[in-house]
Amino acid sequence: MQAPLVGLTDIIYIYLKTLLQQAITMVNNLKTLWLWYVSILIMCAGCMVNPVTLEQQFNVISEAKEISIGRNAHPQIVQQFGYYRNEQLQRYVNDVGQKLVSVCRRPDIRYFFTVLDTEMENAFALPGGYIYITRGLLALMNSEAELAGVLGHEIGHTVGRDSAALMSQNMVAQIAVLAGAAGAAATPSGSDIAMATSQLFNALMLGFSREREYLADEQSVEYLIKAGYDPLQMINFLRTLSFISQGPTGTQQYLTTHPYIFDRIMRVEAKAKVAYAMQQAMDQLQSRDSPAKDSSAVLAEKYKSMIDGLAYGPRNDVRHIKLYTVAPGDTFEQIARRTMGSSVYARKLAYLNGMPEHAQLIPGIKIKTIY
Hints:
about 60% helix
């Protein structure tokens, strides 16, 4: 049987189809090469001097863009977590933050401090000077110096432009994802772009590298001393977090975004002791009173008075922090039974006050409890 003849029309169709496939492949290759070329240009042009280490670091986001990112994201953060409706407390936290800003290494931008209405225990900084702390984390603090330590750490991230640097690194990762997508299809799909965006968001939420956490801690110690706070109170707070984190309902939010807590405690303690001793020596040489570790540098009573009545727990089952004056013979078990209904909350109450469960309480002091 004779095979059917291939007509001229069929030959032209096959030829044109082959040319079209080759053209599509060429376009995809050019897109891929172009994206990689842009990526290389970004990496070559995106070096800046880190204001903390004074070393070159990769960062393609300008200061103006960094501030714009924070300003645009701020309403979304407030909408997601809620603004804590206590203007006196908001002003207090802002005042402490601005006191640290005045002695930081990057005081030429505006800083904004906001208390968020969520039981999550966390603090974080957006690009451009937008710093947040949750009421859940405020409940775990026991002095203004501890608050200053946390805010100083977040200021340190802002000074080092850590968020901008992290976003810059992820921009290159995004380009790599899109380049791979261009090599596989005529145009990158919506899912590819969504994946790149998700990677960027996740990177910001997972916190910074060990080195950047250490640098933020070192800056916090420096700013605490310059602002007149006791830097060792920062260690007390980190230890409180480490104790609580070992329980079944530990402070996982803060520790997820601020890892390496035990290493940080050791480093902060060493840094604080050396820096504090140097500051005292300089003060003595200059015939000034040394900033001794007293109530003026810790301000525990002032802080506790500011958070008296602070909302505690989830919004659908909110309770409140109340101050309790210790009576002779009081223990955490007795106070827990009296104020929280059961002695099983003694450990929680102790950790809330930064003390061991069986600590001997001094009559007359004020501690936090939950009503």
